[in-house]
């Protein structure tokens, strides 16, 4: 019995040493390096983008956030298709497969809650179903309005929208989904009959949680959202675009911590970007997002990469329009990837 015990102990010790050695030799998790794209609205657009995937991969891009919105050939609600040609399921599958071959993850995006219009154009959901409008009858011709928003208290909205999200997830065979949810200004507004006088933080949190329950709990995909509505402008001293002045920021403590938050910061800030450690300290994974200002880009990258936390996932470059030339030549992304490489090499 003693001999058996000694043999078992020796075997366990060797196994433990092996596990420890394996753990010690494990490489750090690879940082996310991605590009946010929109205006690639049909199969032909995706074919053209697919031709750039090898170069993007060679540059270090390992994920793409592709804003789809209503530019999909929906079967559940064909009345909500936007424009004459859309992305088909076959086109989405083909692009996703080509992306995987190049080591690039495709994360579709659909703008939820806000951004349901632009200028004088109201997008399909509120055009076909005006009863879903958060501010029905207000802002004729969208004048005096940034963007229309859907009524977060109306369950019929989600019965339709979730079918759209499901089709997009299935088409791209996605394991993550970006819900947008930025720049929401009208919750609790006097022009909103269903939310007037109610707490915007609770309203926003309920909308996020309803979407989370469907995407994460039911569809088993990771969920990403913009971070601006979860930042308190009054306490941090920022404006109403980069942060919230209407009370939605309280929702940050009412939503699940496994949501990935993408705080976008497009301007240079001499005092840094405290939203990033704030989200990390609250338990969220964070994906800082830049745009085109070269000084802001460098400052944001240097600040975010100093965060000593695995919850600082990496970086997302945004364009906010179809680039005039190849995506792979988009200068802020090219310059940013060089900055990241320099930061990583000097660690």
Explained architecture:
The protein is an alpha/beta fold. The chain has a domain at 33-68 and 87-116 and 164-187 and 198-345: Alpha-Beta Barrel (TIM Barrel), CATH 3.20.20. It is built from eleven helices and eleven strands. It has a nine-stranded parallel beta sheet with strand order 9-8-7-6-3-2-1-11-10, with helices on one face. The termini are far apart. Mean pLDDT is 92; it is low at 1-28.
Task: Jot down its keywords.
single chain, 347 residues, alpha/beta, TIM Barrel, nine-stranded parallel β-sheet, two-stranded antiparallel ribbon, 11 helices, 38% helix, disordered N terminus
Tally of strands: 11
Instruction: Note the total helix count.
Output: 11
Order of helices and strands: HEHHEHEEEHHEHEHEHEEHEH
CATH architecture of the domain at 33-68 and 87-116 and 164-187 and 198-345: Alpha-Beta Barrel
Using the coordinates shown, work out and report the CATH topology of the domain at 33-68 and 87-116 and 164-187 and 198-345.
TIM Barrel
Q: Largest sheet, order of strands side by side? A: 9-8-7-6-3-2-1-11-10
């Amino acid at each position: 019995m003693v001999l058996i015990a000694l043999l078992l102990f020796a075997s366990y010790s060797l196994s433990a040493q092996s596990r420890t050695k394996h753990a010690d030799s494990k490489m750090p998790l690879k940082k996310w390096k991605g590009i946010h794209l929109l205006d690639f609205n049909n199969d032909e657009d995706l074919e053209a983008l697919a031709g750039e995937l090898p170069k993007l991969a060679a540059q270090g891009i390992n994920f793409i956030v592709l804003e789809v919105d209503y530019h999909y050939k929906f079967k559940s609600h064909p009345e909500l298709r936007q424009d004459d040609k859309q992305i088909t399921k076959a086109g989405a599958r083909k692009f996703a497969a080509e992306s995987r071959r190049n080591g690039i993850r495709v994360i579709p995006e659909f703008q939820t809650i806000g951004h349901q219009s632009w200028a004088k154009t109201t997008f399909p959901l509120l055009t076909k179903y005006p009863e879903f409008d958060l501010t029905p009858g207000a802002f004729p011709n969208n004048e005096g309005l940034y963007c229309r928003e859907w009524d977060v208290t109306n369950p019929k909205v989600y019965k339709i929208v979730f079918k759209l999200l499901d089709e997009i997830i299935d088409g791209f065979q996605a394991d993550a989904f970006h819900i947008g949810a930025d720049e929401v200004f009208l919750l609790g507004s006097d022009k909103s009959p269903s939310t007037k006088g109610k707490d915007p933080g609770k309203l926003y949190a309920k909308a996020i949680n309803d979407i989370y329950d469907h995407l994460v709990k039911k569809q088993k995909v990771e969920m990403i959202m913009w971070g601006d509505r979860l930042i308190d402008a009054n306490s941090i001293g920022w404006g109403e675009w980069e942060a919230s002045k209407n009370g939605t920021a309280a929702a940050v403590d009412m939503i699940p911590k496994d949501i990935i938050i993408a705080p976008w910061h497009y301007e240079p800030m001499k005092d840094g970007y405290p939203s990033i450690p704030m989200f990390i300290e609250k338990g969220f994974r964070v994906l800082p997002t830049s745009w085109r200002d070269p000084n802001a880009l460098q400052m944001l990258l240097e600040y975010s990469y100093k965060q000593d936390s695995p919850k600082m996932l990496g970086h997302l470059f945004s364009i906010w329009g179809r680039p005039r030339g190849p995506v792979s030549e988009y200068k802020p992304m090219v310059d940013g990837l060089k900055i990241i490489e320099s930061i990583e090499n000097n660690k």
